[in-house]
């Protein structure tokens, strides 16, 4: 705990907020995203899986207590770019009334020893201060790649950052108010330590949208547009 003291008598005057690096507080933080499940098109199966592994444990933890099991701590979302991974993560945060913190993996790659690991610790410290929080690591392959020893200091620093994330995943209660989501389009390059049970317990694949999904996406994006009533969205979807 940080406090302010009198310069002469050294008496405690006021409590101070926790010291968190400005680069951490400047990350994308949304107290409650404005995206809902209705804004996510073509991801019906993925929505059901995310509701099961993220929404249900956060809104109804008593069900898992009654069954005597631990819910998943984290979810790995993988698939090609632009298939709705980030959008669905924001929609889950909206549904669970949770704060949404988005971290780009490359932002945690620092040139000084220990800086990336410190940012991860302060990131989870900030997440614990929220009523409920979803931490979303985008492009996690930038820091979560498989480890190998080639004697390069930069790679060693990336590995320290990844190990700190693993340590934080092991350090909080699965039935708590924090859920970790990670997204990548290269799941084959991730370190096995991240993917073992108890860390990223579930994997959700996001594929390219089919004809029905593309039609639904067209309808979602034209809801606020001034369009003709007889537009054939299915025909437009066939042209994509």
UniProtKB/TrEMBL annotation:
One of its GO terms (molecular function) is ATP hydrolysis activity. GO terms for cellular component: proteasome complex. Transmembrane segments: none annotated. PROSITE patterns: AAA (PS00674). Keywords: ATP-binding, Nucleotide-binding, Proteasome. Pfam families: AAA (PF00004). InterPro entries: 26S_Proteasome_ATPase, AAA+_ATPase, ATPase_AAA_core, ATPase_AAA_CS, NA-bd_OB-fold, P-loop_NTPase. The keyword NAD does not apply. The keyword Hydrolase does not apply. Residues 71-210 form the AAA+ ATPase domain. Belongs to the AAA ATPase family. This is AAA+ ATPase domain-containing protein. It comes from Gossypium armourianum. The lineage of its organism: Eukaryota, Viridiplantae, Streptophyta, Embryophyta, Tracheophyta.
């Amino acid at each position: 705990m940080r406090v302010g003291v009198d310069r002469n008598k050294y008496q405690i005057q006021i409590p101070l907020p926790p010291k968190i690096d400005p680069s951490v507080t400047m990350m994308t933080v949304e107290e409650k995203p404005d995206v809902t499940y209705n804004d996510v098109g073509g991801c019906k199966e993925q929505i059901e899986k995310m509701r099961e592994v993220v929404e249900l444990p956060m809104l109804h933890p008593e069900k898992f207590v009654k069954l005597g099991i631990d819910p998943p701590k984290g979810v790995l979302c993988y698939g090609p770019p632009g298939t709705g991974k980030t959008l669905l993560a924001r929609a889950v945060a909206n549904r669970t009334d949770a704060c949404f913190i988005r971290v780009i993996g490359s932002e945690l790659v620092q040139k000084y020893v220990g800086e990336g690991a410190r940012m991860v610790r302060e990131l989870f410290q900030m997440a614990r201060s929220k009523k409920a929080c979803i931490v979303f690591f985008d492009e996690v392959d930038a820091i979560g790649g498989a480890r190998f020893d080639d004697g390069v200091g930069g790679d060693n620093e990336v590995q320290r950052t990844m190990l700190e994330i693993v340590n934080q995943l092991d350090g909080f209660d699965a039935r708590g108010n924090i859920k970790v989501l990670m997204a990548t389009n290269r799941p084959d390059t991730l370190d096995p330590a991240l993917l073992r049970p108890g860390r990223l317990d579930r994997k959700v694949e996001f594929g390219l949208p089919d004809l029905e999904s593309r039609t639904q996406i067209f309808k979602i994006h034209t809801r606020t547009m001034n369009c003709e009533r007889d537009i054939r969205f299915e025909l437009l979807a066939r042209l994509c």
